[in-house]
């Protein structure tokens, strides 16, 4: 999707759909005489390698020339001190209740003013890897944080001859401007003890202030790209998608949606003991067209936890950069990383696109099924939902547990179950937009919907083998779903040892309570945030029907 970076003089003014006070404040900083443009990954690598505090490991980058790097490139490690996760409490979104343009425009303009004594780097990438959807994004970040810039250019698509040509020929939207992000990790303000991530989503710009963690830069960029996709006929997806290439030229496209730690990456990359020929779209960020059900990946690389990858794991050869991990010297005298969250929680790495041997940037085939990944102890391992309203509202009330990927405000219980609509805490538009788009996929595009409980069922762990086995049965069409209790729109695949006892009053009481929690969540959307996330009436009706069938 070709966005606009330059404008005719007649298009510049307060009535422009692209220009706003916040965007102008942010974009202006990119043209200062303290700004240096970084135009290639090789240049970004050298800047990051030479930045103070960088650990240049003795781990070679795999196939560096394919990545756009020199043949001697090494994996770079950089640590962020006490900060190793996102801060949801720092997010402010223009358009939400209580977020005033004037207040934040002044704070951002002051941050820009104080950055004038710093050398600032300007980098560019593409978000979206197919001519159907490509957005150009710009990042401005100060000297000292070259590793974040380098990781950002690796995570998204660095501009090269091939992709510049693709972008030039991509679909145009005159009313969408390029993404502009101003970052100053050293910023502080008494009103924002955890920093500030401010978004003007309608005008594709953001200020990331007081944020060292690379994940804020990745997800901040995706936040704006997802909003852009939402305005232009796509369902924005924080999840993974894979295609099973079956015998006889048949295929099965499965989308899985869940927060960090839910198993979405594991499921997306699972090879099922090489039982199937698998093609991966992505494991974190993609979009689905509500017109034809096709899907486009937004980024080539993977930002993955290092918790589950020991130092001798073969997958580590695909590392490009590493964040918040330790380092040591191995028996051969090489500087290597110390993963598995020994140093701190939520150790991370940017892995190359080559990690998935079979990758495609677009699935022209329409998605067959959507799987909501829940960590709700009252749900059995796998259920099937019928009815587009119920299928969509269960995604809007997706229940999970918090993980180490998030920094929590004081007083927040890290063990409490939370509802995160569509597993996407990075949405900047009304929740009804997602609800309607997914409902359209279920209704118009005839997409099936399932819930996979990847946590525990009444204290008994649901293992990955159970989850993947259920997925295999669905893909192969060898399922034995049956009516569950009195539910008219829910079927169950009975798994030995995990069959709910509907005669157990304690269990039924807990199940009903969790469903009522969902009813309460949807009901309160009418008033919270000034009704910004109010859902259509049929969403609440679908949940109330489920509760009534438990009576």
Mind explaining what this structure looks like?
With 551 residues, the chain is α/β, with parallel strands linked by helices. It has 12 helices and 34 strands. The strands form 8 sheets. Strands 14, 15, 16, 17, 18, 24, 25, 26, 30, 33 and 34 form an 11-stranded mixed β-sheet that branches. Strands 2, 6, 7, 8, 9, 11, 12 and 13 form an 8-stranded mixed β-sheet that branches. Helix 1 (21-28) packs parallel to helix 3, helix 2 (41-50) runs antiparallel to helix 4 (146-155) and helix 11 (505-524) packs antiparallel against helix 12 (537-548). It is globular.
User: Which whole number gives the mean pLDDT?
Assistant: 94
**Major sheet characteristics:** 11 strands, mixed
Overall SS class = alpha/beta
How many beta strands in the DSSP annotation?
A: 34
- Helix content range: 25-40%
Morphology call: globular
What fraction of the residues are assigned to beta strands by DSSP?
Answer: 25-35%
C-alpha Rg, in Å? Answer: 23 Å
Terminus-to-terminus distance: 50 Å
Count of helix runs: 12
Q: Uncertain runs with pLDDT below 50, 5 residues or more?
A: none
Q: What are the SSEs and their pairings?
A:
Elements: E1 2-4, H1 21-28, E2 35-38, H2 41-50, E3 55-60, E4 74-78, E5 86-87, E6 91-93, H3 101-114, E7 120-130, E8 133-142, H4 146-155, E9 157-158, H5 161-168, E10 172-177, E11 179-184, E12 196-200, E13 205-209, H6 214-230, E14 234-245, E15 251-257, H7 264-269, E16 277-282, E17 285-289, E18 295-297, E19 302-305, E20 319-323, E21 326-329, E22 335-338, E23 348-351, E24 362-363, E25 369-374, E26 382-385, H8 388-396, E27 399-401, E28 406-407, E29 417-419, H9 431-443, E30 448-453, E31 456-457, E32 460-461, H10 464-476, E33 482-483, E34 490-492, H11 505-524, H12 537-548
Parallel strand pairs: 1-10, 2-7, 4-20, 5-28, 6-12, 8-11, 11-13, 15-25, 25-30
Antiparallel strand pairs: 3-4, 7-8, 7-9, 12-13, 14-15, 14-16, 14-17, 17-18, 18-24, 19-23, 20-23, 21-22, 26-30, 26-34, 27-29, 31-32, 33-34
Helix pairs in contact: 1-3, 2-4, 8-9, 8-12, 11-12
């Amino acid at each position: 999707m070709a966005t606009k970076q330059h404008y005719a003089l007649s298009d510049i003014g307060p009535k422009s759909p692209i220009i706003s006070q916040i965007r102008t404040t942010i974009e202006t900083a990119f043209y200062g005489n303290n700004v240096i443009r970084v135009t290639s990954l090789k240049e970004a690598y050298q800047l990051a390698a030479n930045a103070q505090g960088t650990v240049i490991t003795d781990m070679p980058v795999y196939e560096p020339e394919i990545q756009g790097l020199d043949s001697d490139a090494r994996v770079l490690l950089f640590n962020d001190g006490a900060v190793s996760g996102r801060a949801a409490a720092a997010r402010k979104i223009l358009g939400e209740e209580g977020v005033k343009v004037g207040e934040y425009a002044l704070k951002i303009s002051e941050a820009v003013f104080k950055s004038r004594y710093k050398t600032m780097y300007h980098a560019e990438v593409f978000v979206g890897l197919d001519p159907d959807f490509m957005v150009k994004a710009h990042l401005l970040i100060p000297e000292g944080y070259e590793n974040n810039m380098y990781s950002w250019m690796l995570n998204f698509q660095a501009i090269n001859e091939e992709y510049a040509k693709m972008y030039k020929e991509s679909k145009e939207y005159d009313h969408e401007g390029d993404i502009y992000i101003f970052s100053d990790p050293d910023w502080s303000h008494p009103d924002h003890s955890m920093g500030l991530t401010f978004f003007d989503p309608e005008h594709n710009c953001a200020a990331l202030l007081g944020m060292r963690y690379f994940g804020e830069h990745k997800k901040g960029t995706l936040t704006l790209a997802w909003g852009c996709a939402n305005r232009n006929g796509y369902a924005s997806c924080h999840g993974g998608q894979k295609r099973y290439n079956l015998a006889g030229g048949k295929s099965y496209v499965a989308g899985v949606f869940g927060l960090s730690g839910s198993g979405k990456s594991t499921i997306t990359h699972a090879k099922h003991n090489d039982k199937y020929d698998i093609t991966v779209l992505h494991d974190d960020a993609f979009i689905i067209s509500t017109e034809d059900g096709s899907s486009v990946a937004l980024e080539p690389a993977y930002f993955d936890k290092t918790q589950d990858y020991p130092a001798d794991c073969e997958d580590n050869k695909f590392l490009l950069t590493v964040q918040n991990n330790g380092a040591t010297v191995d028996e051969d005298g090489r500087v290597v990383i110390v993963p598995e969250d020994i140093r701190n929680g939520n150790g991370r790495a940017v892995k190359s696109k080559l990690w998935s041997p079979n990758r495609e940037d677009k699935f022209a085939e329409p998605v067959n099924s959507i799987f909501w990944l829940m960590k709700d102890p009252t749900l059995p391992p796998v259920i099937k939902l019928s009815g587009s309203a119920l299928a969509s509202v269960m995604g809007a009330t997706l229940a999970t547990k918090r993980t180490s990927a998030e920094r929590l405000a004081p007083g927040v219980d890290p063990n409490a179950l939370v509802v995160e609509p569509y597993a996407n805490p990075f949405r900047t538009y009304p929740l009804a937009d997602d609800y309607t788009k997914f409902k359209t996929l279920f209704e118009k595009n005839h997409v099936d919907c399932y819930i996979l409980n990847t946590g525990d069922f009444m204290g008994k762990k649901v293992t990955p083998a159970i989850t993947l086995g259920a997925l295999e049965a669905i893909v192969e069409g060898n399922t034995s779903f049956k009516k569950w209790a009195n539910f008219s729109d829910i079927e169950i695949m009975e798994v030995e040892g995990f069959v709910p006892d509907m005669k157990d009053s304690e269990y039924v009481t807990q199940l009903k309570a969790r469903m009522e929690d969902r009813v309460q969540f949807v009901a309160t959307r009418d008033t919270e945030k000034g009704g910004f996330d109010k859902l259509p009436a049929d969403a609440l009706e679908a949940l109330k029907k489920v509760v009534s069938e438990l009576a």
